[in-house]
Amino acid sequence: MKTNKADEVTSADRAAALRHVPYGAPKKAKLALVDSAEPIRSPVDAFAGTVAAGGTWSAQPTTVVKPGPRVMGRTAPELRPVPVVHTVLRATGTALGLGAVVGGVAMLALLSGPGAIVAALLLILAGILAALLCVTSQRNAEQAVFDVGKNVDKKAVSDFSGHVSFVPEYKVAPQNEQEIAAVLRAAQRDKKRVKVIGSGHSFSGAFATDGYLMSLAKLNAMQVIDKDKGLVSVGAGAKLDDIKEFLAANGLAFENLGGITKQAIAGAINTGTHGSGASYGIIATQVERLKLMTADGKTQWLSRSENPELFSAALVSMGALGVITEIVLRTRPAYNLKEVVTKTTFDEAFDQAKIEARLKQNDRFQIIWIPHSWDTFLVERNPTTAPADADFSHETPDAPFFERLAQNFGLALSHVSDDWRPALMAIAGGTQPAVDVQVGRSDLILSRPLPPRQRELEFAFPLADAEKVMRKLRAEIERQGLKMNFPCSMRFVKGDDLLMSPANRGDSFYISVLLQGESDQDDHVMQAIQRVFADLGGRPHWGKENDQVTAEELRDSYGESYDRFCEWLAKLDPQGTFRSDYVDRFFPYRDRAEKPR
Predict the structure, then answer these.
(1) Which of 88-102, 349-363, 453-467 has the highest mean pLDDT?
(2) Cβ–Cβ under 8 Å, residues 210 and 154
(3) Which of 246, 296, 339, 551 has the fewest CB atoms within 10 Å, i.e. is most exposed?
């Protein structure tokens, strides 16, 4: 059979696909400007339109706006080796922990009396926990290193929680679209699959593959295209943390953010990540345009006026339609938020009428409930002209090391015995202040540091079902005796029209359930709660645990938009290059003759 020369894989292609790229420059405290000798590249070259007030692209000519300089994000953590100093500190901590255990055992052998015995036992317990925390921290750091090339050592890659683990055959870190295309040609020649990984901050295995695992961490350029309209171009591999600092440096900010900003922007968009606020959609709705490379290596810009249905499908697509390489975001001028957290009762917080009233009264609103207790917290956030609190840095990711260590140590106590969890959760709720008020930069108020290891599931429901679903969750936790050790959160999202967005049926709320650490009963807890939510008609978050949901349930829930998405899968990727076990589970192959409408 004659082969199309354009489809052949040359040795140069393979070398470009598998080239071992150095880990990158040393860590810099600030984002670096691109060398001025390099021409400024605008993602809207050869495009005359602008973003209109309504949020869609207009074909009308406008005044030419000179884009700002391109800025590169910091060297991605997953492309840096574990610093030697960190390894030494972790090893020292492990040694001190084990030394504490030995010292405690010696005290038990040499001393007598109840006081000495209690002190010795506490020393042993503290030593064991300290050693485990240091060993786990070192293991997680080593797993985060993204060794580029053939995975000859069969090194496993894990998600953020460690719950999903897989062994890819190749790991690649292309630095431009030409190298991405070379990877795709090599993969199609070898009949292997390709999945893109961002920061690995997912709980679902959406990026797991036994073929080519592609990191886009080097595609992290950021550029203000039109400051007046708030248009900013970002590379698909740029981390939300870096983007928000870039925006702040330019007097801009995200319209809304979720609680964590460690994700790469493409991953956050592709999995439907969201924040909270009745007037704000998921993060994907802040995208004005995106550049998609399909399995054939061709790229195209998508927007609400440029192939709008594919745009709607590609935004929340779990990486199944192609590789997103560049994104144009809609942002807003920088602003501060005032956050008021008020303790109240479960019944007061989850009254349906009061929920809907508070959504109208507040720009951002969410509810946090501490399982095994009646303690519930209303989180109200509104824009303010007041300056940020002087001590607000204590609530950001730059919080003092020992403060975060103490928080994690407290959570670690709940790992000693599942039976301790209800009491510890009650103590946690009972020790929180009745009212807490803070003012800070919007993105720092919206996103906070969380424990380093956790598991999470999250489901979306129509807004009108908020009270019913929350009461059912509480009843099932109590009926089944499920032991929780982290708060549950209810967040709110404006409805959208994206094909596979959990919020595409109208204004919605999400309930997230988290577990921190590891326990033998955690699998049962997560599976049981997933079934409760699925039976109530909930739609799972694409980046969080959802293994109990079936393709049939998704088809019933999404209806026509599910079928349209499957049609795009068949049209854009007939060979299944971007498929995976995860995609196959939710979107199994089906013979379809009709073309996408």
Answers:
(1) 349-363
(2) no
(3) 551
Domain shared by 390 and 480, yes or no: yes
Q: In this structure, are 363 and 471 located in the same domain?
A: yes
With residue 461 as reference, give the H or E element that holds it: strand 454-462
Angle between helices 466-480 and 352-361 (to 10 degrees): 130
User: Is residue 36 in some structural domain?
Assistant: no
Give the domain range for residue 560. 553-586
* 9 contacts 189 by C-beta, under 8 angstroms: yes
416 domain-assigned: yes
Count of other CB atoms within 10 angstroms of residue 102: 13
| 403's tokens | 């403060």
**244 and 367 co-located in one domain:** no
Beta bridge pairs of residue 170:
150, 212
Do residues 467 and 488 both lie within one domain? yes
Burial class (CB in 10 A: 0-12, 13-18, 19+), 2: exposed
Same domain, 400 and 506: yes
- Among 107-121, 364-378, 459-473, the range scoring the smallest mean pLDDT is 107-121
Q: Find the mean pLDDT for residues 309-333.
A: 96
CB 455 within 8 A of CB 520: no
Residue 159 in any domain: the answer is yes
The edge-to-edge listing of strands for the beta sheet with 488-493 is 435-441, 336-345, 375-384, 364-369, 488-493, 508-516, 454-462, 539-540
| 451 and 514 housed in the same domain | yes
Same domain for 440 and 291: no
Angle at 271 between CA 270 and CA 272, to 5 degrees: 95
Residue 79 lies in a domain: no
> Residue-wise over 316-345: b if at least 16 C-beta within 10 A, else e?
bbbbbbbbbbbbbbbbeebebbbbebbbbe
- Decide: helix, strand or coil at residue 339: strand
Contact partners, residue 389, CB within 8 Å, separation at least 6: 438, 439, 440
Query: According to DSSP H, which parts of 203-318 are helical?
Result: 240-249, 265-270, 308-315
For the stretch 169-214, pLDDT in tens is: 999 999 899 999 999 999 999 899 999 998 888 888 888 999 999 9
Please name the residue that has the structure tokens 């409930």. Answer: 369
Cα torsion 554, 488, 493, 49 to 10°: value is -90
Q: What are phi and psi of 58, to 5 degrees?
A: -110, 140
Q: Which of 314, 328, 285 is nearest to 44 (CA)?
A: 328
Pair 57, 49: CB distance under 8 Å: yes
Last residue of a domain, which of 312, 334, 356? 334
Provide the domain count of the chain. 4
What is d(CA 160, CA 143) in angstroms, rounded to the nearest whole number? 10
Strand partners, 337: 383, 440
Q: What is the pLDDT of residues 420-461, one digit of tens each?
A: 788 777 777 777 888 999 999 999 999 877 666 788 999 999
Q: Which one of 334, 369, 401 terminates a domain? A: 334
Could you tell me the CATH number of the domain that includes residue 235? 3.30.465.10
